[in-house]
Amino acid sequence: MTFIWLAVIGALVVVELVTYGLYFAALAIAAVVPLVISLLGLDLWVQALGFLAAAVVALVFVRPVIAKLQGTSPEKMTNSAALIGKPAEVVEEVTEVAGYVKVQGETWTARTSSGVRAVGSKVVIEQIDGASLIVG
Hints:
Helix content is 44%, strand content 21%.
């Protein structure tokens, strides 16, 4: 049974890596309990009960933390959407058509919502259009 619990933990970690929410991470952590129980040689029903109890505890403690971190817009926590509202520095003149800015050490294509921004000026990311940042 030990190898099965290891496989369950591995599968839950993989699912967590391709989803968002930390629920599967909580379940992977909970699956460590029946893994330890199986190493002690206890019956499968004890392992299942241990997993159930640990999963409930993990989800009860993890869910409030997740809700607090997500706020009202969980999609803004990750990927490029997390850049909205962040400061950037113009590295090549930015116009309403084209330009480049540096954000958190990475260079992005950018456009302004209006006007021109000179090299070295500080801008704020207003939105994202495809792979280009719209700055103001």
